[in-house]
Amino acid sequence: MENAYIKLVSASNKQSMTLNDVKELFNYYKEITSKTGTQLDWEYAETAFPYQIKEVDTENNWLYLKSNEPKYNAIIVGVGKELIEDDNVDDPQEQFYIQVTLPQVATYGDKGKANEFCKFLGKKLEGELHLFNGRVMYYYKRK
Q1: How many domains does the chain have?
Q2: Structure confidence by residue, pLDDT tens digits, 100-112
Q3: Are the C-beta atoms of 109 and 124 separated by less than 8 Å?
Q4: What is the largest CA-CA distance in the chain?
Q5: One short Pfam family name for this protein (predicted)?
């Protein structure tokens, strides 16, 4: 299994995240890609988001994206929080994150879509994206 993380840092436009927030962001993604398809006169929505959102474990904050398309299989998306130490603050601070996991059954198509979704979420939330390959992309304004 491979993991990527979108961390909500202090400069992010949102400081907390729920599973419903993630679902809303995916629905927004589907909406804007379908508008792009309408402008191009092409059924782009199905290509851009070839998954159905299945809630597997709401108690532990996990979504399961399942696809019936030949090139795609599955992506798991979760929401969590961790305590981080900050040099400027005495007490550890809570930091929310979105975890995107590629299960063993994931295809190369799933990895490409997962990277695309991670970049979209990172940009939309102005977060810190830790990619599957270990690289970090900063979507928030840095001082």
Answers
A1: 1
A2: 999 999 999 999 9
A3: no
A4: 56
A5: DUF1885
